[in-house]
Amino acid sequence: MAETKTVTVAAVDAQIKAILGAWGMAEPALSITARVMLWADLRGIDSHGISMIAASYRRMRDAGILNFAPKIEAVVDLPSIATLDGGGGLGHYPSVRAMELAIGKCRKTALAAVTVRNSNHYGAAGYYAAMAAEAGLIGISMTGVHVAATVPTFGAEPRFGTNPIAFAAPAGRNPPFVLDMATSTVAVGKLVLAARAGKTLPVGWSVDEQGQPLTDPKRARELRRMTPLGATRDLGSHKGYGLAMMVEILCSTLSGAIYAPTRPPSKPGDPYNVGHFFLALDPGAFRDKADFNDDLDAMIDCLHATKPVDPAQPVLVAGDPETAMEIKRTAEGIPLSSVLVDELRDIARAANAEFTL
Amino acid sequence: MAETKTVTVAAVDAQIKAILGAWGMAEPALSITARVMLWADLRGIDSHGISMIAASYRRMRDAGILNFAPKIEAVVDLPSIATLDGGGGLGHYPSVRAMELAIGKCRKTALAAVTVRNSNHYGAAGYYAAMAAEAGLIGISMTGVHVAATVPTFGAEPRFGTNPIAFAAPAGRNPPFVLDMATSTVAVGKLVLAARAGKTLPVGWSVDEQGQPLTDPKRARELRRMTPLGATRDLGSHKGYGLAMMVEILCSTLSGAIYAPTRPPSKPGDPYNVGHFFLALDPGAFRDKADFNDDLDAMIDCLHATKPVDPAQPVLVAGDPETAMEIKRTAEGIPLSSVLVDELRDIARAANAEFTL
User: Fold this and answer.
1) How many CB atoms lie within 10 A of CB A146?
2) Which residues of chain A lie closer than 8 angstroms to B303, CB-CB?
3) Which numeric CATH code is attached to B1-62+331-357?
4) Across the interface, which of A157, A186, A211 has its CB nearest the CB of B236?
5) CA-CA to A355 of 20 to 30 Å: which in A121, B105, B193, B240?
């Protein structure tokens, strides 16, 4: 394991704001973006929090791809649906606005969907779905990705991003159900971790240029060609591939954003034009809200009580590990790798931003 | 391979109607149910067409579980959402009514969802999603299942059905995108086929009473314990498990249907109370309809043009194999196994129904 440094939640929050603020992001976008990124770090989704500044946002900013003072505009606004133009900035802020809009519409119509186009990476998909659940609603969040990394079944070239699906629903006694999953077998981050640890990859995570299974973690990290969920045709990779395409249709085709492999040749600084999809649905319009919450509690309890393969590893429900991590890290702080801390120090210095970690 | 007999499309249609009619199903439910079942047989989804009469509906009818003259009632009916009570009959008819209702509402609101409770097996999930696509809309269809067969990650007991997701979207030049997938790694039908062929199962399809991989096809067919899509924890079975739970929440918890493992002890003849979920969304409300169709065509074309692993097996898009099969079987007729034809002859005789095959 790499060396880590545990820092306070407030320090991470301050560091995100210091860097993004120095790059030109103003309130309210700044606090909202930091909140979404911090949520990922608190819940153990380390690949989607403050690390993104070093892993990706710095490069996009340097390439002139990110607009740090975007104007978020509604290009369609009807009682049950809307489309926002994200103005070419980071995706977190327009996505929070989009889910807020969906929740507001849902209060009147019981069901609403909002798409976002001309956006970028929006952090952890689960955040927006969880916003709906916190409001007592069912929430869905999906996003396209500006670069293709997932290879369709029978194919030897990548055609979709990791195209995640998040779904959240409010229980009563239990924390909400929060599913947040890439439609690829694993996310890119897992290849990076395996390469660092020098571990041979399981067959089914990654393929080579000929579409054949690739188990060398270093080559897999360089190539970044993931399988769709299902891994192989025998185990159902055509299903993960189909889900990835569903996400792409709802995020890119529906909003008018760009499907990456059909992107025309671009000049440096051209916006990525990534699309997102959000949906809010009110269970209290379908039936008594308390009955819905009670029935979901009964389902969750039933799953937790399922006979486990190994008594030391009980059956979990989506969101359980993240909720436990959030409690732990809220109390104890957030561990960051020393490498990341060093990178963030450099980025802060270059941006004339305060270093808070 | 077992012996097969190829029969005309009209003969299959007539046989479905003759048996269900003799069991007490009247018009318009009779023609609509036959249309949905025939669609599955035409598209090669053999496990969900006329074979269901022999494989399942006969037993349910004999057990007094199916009401063949149900009253379909709207228990909730708002501008964007509704819930129908299926009256305890087969699921096809209330599900067609539900998707018709969703499509009608969607014409006014751009987005609508309808749930069904107190229903049963509804055939191929894709039919209802495809109804929306034929109407120029995006469609979603999902269903719960009356018996649990899929084992959650880390668990040794089944907790969900195959809980399918279907999603369809209209293209321009191309046939619609129609994804129709169980959220288990494979459907029960594949275990039955493997058992018949005496083939050892791939690790990851099925587990035993201890939750350990089971590759003996005969035992797997008896036990019927499937893994969620992803097959193993390493390959992402927690994602398929999460998707199965999402389907269950939208179908059962939202509609007020029953989540099978929490079903109270029942007496013979008690209804299964299965739930379904349908959604229709109008892409023409988000952007110019023709632009949406064109962009989806471009995506489909791009996928078809993807460099294949094996030049003899091009990259497909969900719905391609079924569309090809529909063209073939419409022209040539539908092959039924001789065993199935014999079973249907016996069922027709017992019901005093005409035998048309």
Assistant:
1) 18
2) 152, 155, 159, 245
3) 1.10.1530.10
4) A186
5) A121
